[in-house]
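Lecture 7 notes: from sequence to structure.
We start with the chain below.
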Amino acid sequence: MIDQLLEGNKKFRDTVFKQNIEHYQELTKGQSPPVLWIGCSDSRIQTGHITQMQPGHLFIQRNIGNVAPVHDWNFATVLEYAIKHLKVKDIVICGHSDCGAIKALDKETDDVYIPLWLNNAIEAKQRVDAKIKKPVTPEEVKERSTKIEQENVRLQIEHLKTYPLVKKALKDKQIEIHGLYYNLDTGGLSKIV
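Predicted structure tokens for the same chain:
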């Protein structure tokens, strides 16, 4: 697999990199992306591709379940750097269809770290389950998952807003926060309200 990655990089350098050499040379001088993108680690979602953004436009933080955990040093560091130093104008939390993290909320496991991490998303499941009847058909199961995936985006936005740095940036109108949802079946990206 490593050889494939290196061969892919060679093809990238010979085509895309050479064709856009001025852009890539400009990026060596520094970065000033307008967007902090918080998305899922899912390998099927390549953020730059689905948004058609060139390198330098998105500061990306990915994790299982597109979580914005409360009181997490790693996440707080990303926020601080993005808001204070990169001066991003928009923060996006993007969920997606067929999310394994959301499916895992319903499963018992002997994993140690994953359930602890997913505690950051469990409230989304609880909110949806409190509003709907227990799904019976495969269609209802899929619809429930979609609702939880979308509710998780809303929940993570709430978590994001608990950080003092984010509260201040919102109050000072330095940033805007957006929820998005990517559908693997259609390739479509839509707003979550």
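Points to note: The chain has two domains: 1-30, 31-192. The chain has a mean pLDDT of 96.
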